[in-house]
Amino acid sequence: MGTFTNLTLRLNPPSPPFDNEGFGCLPIFDKGLLGCSPPLKKGGQGGFVFRRAPIRIALLALTLLAAPAHALDGDDILRQVDRKLNPESYEMYRKLINIEPDGRKKEFVMFSVKKGRDKMIALFLDPPSEKGRATLRLGDNMWLYIPGVGKPLRITSLQSVVGGVFNNADILGLDYSVEYRVEKLEQKPGEYRLDLKARTAAVAYDRLKMRVDAQALVPVEIEAYAASGLLIKTLRFKDIKDFGDGLRRPATMETDSPLYKGYKSVMLYAKIKARSFPDEVFTLDYLPRAGELR
Fold first, then answer.
1. Who's near 257: CB < 8 A, 6+ residues apart?
2. What percentage of residues in the chain have a pLDDT greater than 90?
3. Which residues pair with 34 in a beta bridge?
């Protein structure tokens, strides 16, 4: 800053900068440089007397200079992840495969529909022994309909209607931002890391640690924990695929658990598209007719 060469700051008597007796330099911004405001008047011996500047103004200016252009918002990133995975209301076909330690497999094919934040149905299409069964989720409440049994049965999020490592909360999953809030966000090379806390005690997992691809904004890996800190399972997302209408997301989700050593479950997504439904579809009365939605 050549304009400030040989300028003398006159203090009488000598005192620390910005005290009640001294004079300060009022910061200004000029072409990206931090400078001082023009002098108030010319002083003796060729010096200048500068404007008084309260220290709070100077500190505010320095803070603004150092502030980033924008701060990352973890909850906003989580909402974007939700929309990258699925439309808010949709229909979907998927296959679920349970793999036992000896390599034996059991497969299920499901047709699912979801509306808004907290309404979902999953209808079993295969194997024949399961065909016609349907599950309904309304918020934290879940039911299973079995043809010929009568009224739908209450089920819980930590149970599994298919066995294996996936539980009902995984099969009837809502948006992550509905069930969790972001407590911590870290930015790493190529990814975001989110620490999530359940909004209520009814949520299946108390905490999630989510790794998100920073470019695609889809999960790479999720670790699910109990309130005690116990790792319940790890979910891994693979094979990003174009499902049409701008939806690019992982087509494969795999899970394993230290609680079920040697067991593994895989979910394969075949078709996802936006679709609207009336509210009456997501009722216990309609559940036996879920097959009509296809």
1. 165, 232, 233, 234, 263
2. 74
3. 29
